[in-house]
From TrEMBL:
One Pfam family per UniProt: YjcZ_2
Protein name per the record: Sporulation protein YjcZ
Membrane topology category: Single-pass membrane protein
Protein source organism: Peribacillus deserti
InterPro entries tied to this protein: YjcZ-like (IPR010070)
Length: 34
């Protein structure tokens, strides 16, 4: 488990992606899409 893409950096990136997806889905669901 010593790949460059995984570990702390990969976990943080995954968290950010999930957070952004949550915001986008929430925004569209509530009706303030872009």
């Amino acid at each position: 488990m010593s790949d460059a893409g995984y570990g702390f950096g990969g976990g943080f990136a995954l968290l950010v992606v999930l957070f952004i997806l949550l915001i986008i889905i929430g925004a569209t669901y509530c009706g303030y899409g872009y």
